[in-house]
C-alpha cells in the first residue's frame, strides 16, 4: 500500500502535529486524525494479527465496524487491549502496540497456525476435545482441560492489564423530550426540527466530530451545508454530546450512553472521570445511526490493503490521506462511484470492477470524465500478496456463476458489497428487522414504541432524502409530544439510480483460498458450508458453531454475508433463514463505566451505628454484618481475635459486658388492633402479653418455614416495640406493611421503622443490674421485684436521657437491652462503660456474642436459613396449638413433619483438644460420603465448657445419635474430625443464671 | 428500566420499588384448609399480557401498590394503592375521573 498524506484537504489541522509511538516507533499525525488515519498516512500496512490464523491484518474500515486494525493502547495500569485504530482519536503521547503476535505484528511466529488451518475450522474444538473419548483413548473433555491453556494462548486477542485501574468513572442521569442518535444529515435535521418546535433535544454522536457521513464528503457545498446545519442546531438549543455512544435502548424510552470523557488525552484531568455511563430517559427517540458498508467474500479478502469503499473516501476527504496509488474499486451498487471519482481526481489511478451488467449512463459518464476505467460483470476472486495487496485475480460472470479471467496489479482494493442499516438499537427493543430484497439489506421493522428510524438507518441512500427523512422524524416526534408542526412525508428506502445486485461471494469452482466472512473471528465461507453440512443450519446454531458475529464487532460486517451463504447452501431465501438478534452493547463498554463510583468502600452502602466512633476509640476491630459495620472484638495489647473473644466471654459471664446492638431492626407497632396483629404474625400467643413485659417471638412465612425471630415489648395498651434480627430488619418491615396494606386492610395498626431512631446496648452478666442501677436516675426501677426477667421499663438515665430497658438475654446471663434516642448513643456508652469498668467488666463484640449464643443454643441467621421449620430449630413448643397464625396451616405439610428431618443439635469434639469448622458435613463414622447425615452451622471455643463446641443440624435430632461417634467431614480444609452430637443447650440449660 | 407512576410520589424509576407478586391471589383465612393455602402460596399463572401485580415503593413512600403491567411490552396501564380505603380516599381527593 503506497498511502500518503496529501499537502492539503481534509478536516485535520495541519498546524497541530501530534507525536505518538507505534510499536516503539515515534510517528506524527495531526489533530483531527484517528490512529488509523495517522498510521495509514505513514504507510503502515500491517497493524494486527488475526484471531486464529495469525494472518496479517490492516485497516479495513474507517469506523466502529473495524475488524482488522485492533491494537493495544496505553501502558502499565492504563493498558487497553482490542482498541479499534479507526475510532481511537489521536493525541500527543499516545502509546500504541500490536497485539496477538510475537515478536511483533509484522513478523509473527504464530502465523504457523495458518499451516494447520484444518485444525482451526468451525467446530474443531468441540469435535476434538469435548464429550466422548477420542478414538477410545482418554477422555475427550479431559484432553481439552490439558490443551485449553495452549490453545487459548495461541488464539486470542490483546491482553488486559493485571494492575488496578487508576482512573475514576461516573454514572449520570439525563432527561429530555427527544433523543437523537447520530449526527449525520438525518440526525442533525431531526434535532433541528424537534428543537425548533421548542422541545428539549439531546443529540448523541459516537465520533469526536459532528456530521456523520458528511464528514466523508469532499465537496465544498457539503461542508457548508454541514456547518450551516450545525449552527442552526446549536442555535435551537440542542444539547450535543460527542464521543458518546448510545449502546442500548431499553424499556420506557431509556437509553444507555457511554461517554468517553478522557480517551483522547493521555490521562484524565484530575477532576474528570475517564468514562461516564449515562442513563438517559427520553419521551421520544430518533435513531439516525446510519448504515455500514459490507464487503463480499472472495479469496484472501482480508489482506492489508483491502477495505470498504467508504473507508477509502473517508481517508481521502476527512483525513487528507490518499490511501493508494493504483486503486481497484469492486462494487455491486451505485454508492462506490463517487469515491472512485474523488480518488482519481486526487491523483490515484482508479479502475472499477462492477458485478452488474448495466449501470446508469450518468454514473458511466462520471467515471469516464474522471478517467476511471470500468469493467462490468467483473469482480475480484483472489487477492495477491500477503502483507500488502500487490494485485488481484479477476473473475467475470458466465451463465452459471463466476469464472477466472486475468489479473490486475494494484496496491489498494476497495470493496462495496452493499449497505446494512444500523438497526441494532431497534433490535434491542425486540423489533425484528425485515429483509428487503430490492435494497439487499435488513430494514428496521415496525414498532409501537416512540422510536423512529431516520436516514440511512432506514435504508435511505442519498443525502437529500436523509435530510427530509430526519426532518419528517423530528416533526412526527414534535407532534407526538403535543407541538403543532406541519408534517412531512418520510422518503421510502432506496435512492440509487439503478438497483443493487445481491452478491455475497465471488467463488470460482477451482478456488482454494480462504474467503473471509467474519475476519475478526477468522470465520470463512467454507466454515459456513461446513456448518451446513454438519446440520447447524439454524442461524442461532450457525452463530455458535462457527462463532460468526461473536467477535467484538458483534457481526456488524459478517452477519449478512454469513446468512446469505447459509441461505444459498439451503437453497432458500434470506428471510427464510432468519436474522440474528442484535443485543446491547452496540460497541464495547468499559467495565469501569459500568461500575462507576461503586467500588472499594462505595461498592455497597455502609451502615454505621451512632456508637461507631465510640467503639473505635475503645479499641474495636470492626467486621461487616450485612451492610453494618459492627465491633468484632476489643483486643487488649498482645491479643488477637481468639484471645480477645475468649476473655470477653469469660469476663461477661463473670461480671458484666457491654455490646453495641444498635443494628437490630426496631419497629413501632401501634394502634387499637396492634395486639391482634402481633397475635397473627407470631407463632406464640401475644394476646395476653401484659403492659411492661417483653416476649420472644418467632414468625413464619406463608409456607410454614421460619422467617425471623426477635423480642416484642409492650409499652402500652396500643403501643409495641418490636426488635428483629439485623439481617432481616428490612424484610420484616416490608412484610408487615404488605400484610396491613393488602391482606388485613381492616386492622387499625401503623407500623413505623424506628431502627435509626434508637441506639442500643446489651448489658450482660451477673453485675449488669448494678451497672444499670448506677446509670438510671431512679435506681429503684432496677430492683428484681419490680423488674423481673422479660420485664420492660421506660425510664431516664442520669442527666435526663430518656431510655427503654428490657430484661432479656441472648447471652444466657442476667442481661438487659437499653435503648436511647440515637444521638445519645455515645453518652449512654460513656455512662455504662464507666460503671462496667469499675465492676471489672468489658466491652464485647460479635465474636463473643456468637460464642455465648452458641453455648446457649440460640439460633441466628446461620441456622434460620430459610429451609428450617420451627420444629427443626427445636422451637416447636413456641407454635401455639390454640390459635391460627401466618404459616400455621402449611407448617403441617407432611414433609415438614417427617421424623427424620434435620434438627438443631449441639456438637462437641470427641477429643476435647480438637477443633472443627462451620460448614463441615456430619457423617457416620464409616460412611464419609455424599450428603452425610447433617451439617455444622456455627462453631466457637467455649470458655465455660473448656473445649470447642458447635451447632448444626442432623437427621432426626440429637436423641438418636447420643453416644455415637460421628465425623465432621471438611475434606478441603481440615479433614475429618471425630465429634459427638449433644443437646444444643450446652450451657446452663435450665436458665438459672438468666433468671437470677 | 420501567417507571411506575406512584399515586403518592409521582413517576419514579423501578429501582425505587421492589416487586411483590401476583395481586390477584386471595389469601385464605389463617385457619383455612391446607389445600386453599397450598393454592394461594404455590400456584401462579404465567401471564402473557396484562398482569395485576403488587409493587412496594420501598425506597419511597413505603406504600404497596397494585400495578397493571403488560408482561410482554412492560407497558404499565394503571397504578393504585393496594389498600382499598387508601385508594378510595385518594380518588375522592383527586375528584371525579375526567371523561375521556
How would you explain this protein's 3D organization?
The complex is a heterodimer of chains A (996) and B (100). Chain A contains 24 helices and 49 strands. In chain A, the strands form 13 sheets. In chain A, strands 9, 10, 11, 12, 13, 14 and 28 form a 7-stranded mixed sheet that branches. Chain A has a 6-stranded mixed sheet with strand order 40-41-42-39-33-43. A 6-stranded antiparallel β-barrel of chain A has the order 44-47-46-45-48-49. In chain A, strand 41 (801-806) and strand 42 form a beta hairpin. Chain A is elongated. In chain B, 20% of the residues lie in helices and 33% in strands. Chain B contains 2 helices and 6 strands, in the order βββαβββα. With 100 residues, chain B is α+β, with helices and mostly antiparallel strands. The model of chain B has no long low-confidence stretch (mean pLDDT 92). Chain B has a 4-stranded antiparallel sheet. The two termini of chain B are 29 Å apart. Chains A and B meet through helix 19 of A and helix 1 and helix 2 of B.
Key traits:
heterodimer, A: 996 residues, alpha+beta, seven-stranded mixed sheet, six-stranded mixed sheet, 24 helices, 49 strands, B: alpha+beta, four-stranded antiparallel sheet, two-stranded antiparallel ribbon
* Helix proportion of chain A: 10-25%
Spatial order of the strands in the main sheet of chain B?
A: 3-4-5-6
Radius of gyration of chain B: 15 Å
Let me know the largest β-sheet of chain A.
Answer: 7 strands, mixed
Average the pLDDT over all residues of chain B and give the rounded result: 92
Beta strand count of chain A: 49
Query: Which two chains have the most extensive interface, and how many residues on each?
Result: A-B, 27 and 32 residues
**Helix and strand run of chain B:** EEEHEEEH
The average pLDDT value of chain A, as a whole number, equals 93
